[in-house]
Design goal:
single chain, about 120 residues, alpha+beta, two-stranded antiparallel ribbon, 5 helices
């Protein structure tokens, strides 16, 4: 099973010297990544910051950058952030599982998402 995935950002992170960094790697998220991110003080004061913190934990590498931090992720162009959010959802199979069901009245078959809550 693959647990690390390579990516190329559409725009790229521009560092303080003007150099662009586009290639990197993202690993699969763990339950701990998401749980610990919810306890981050920045997330507690602004819940929309959760995405930034989680991505900073699962992006393991960005070419030419020593460490990927939440501060770095928040400096990404919006196109790059959207790209990484989409990648995170795809590699972690965020889509809810679907189940085939049959309508008891008309007999029509269709899919419904499974909701475990």
């Amino acid at each position: 099973m693959d647990t690390v995935f390579e990516f190329t950002l559409p725009k790229g992170y521009m560092d303080g010297t003007g150099e662009l960094h586009r290639r990197g790697k993202m690993r699969l998220a763990t339950a701990g990544d998401e749980i610990s991110a919810t306890h981050d003080p920045r997330v507690l004061s602004n819940p929309s910051y959760l995405t930034i913190v989680v991505l900073s934990r699962v992006i393991t590498e960005l070419e030419g950058v020593e460490a990927v931090t939440a501060t770095l992720v928040e400096k990404l162009f919006t196109a790059d952030l959207a790209y990484l959010q989409d990648m995170y959802q795809r590699i972690n199979d965020i889509e809810p599982p679907m189940m085939q069901v049959v309508c008891p009245d008309c007999g029509r078959q269709f899919e419904v998402p499974l909701n475990f809550t």
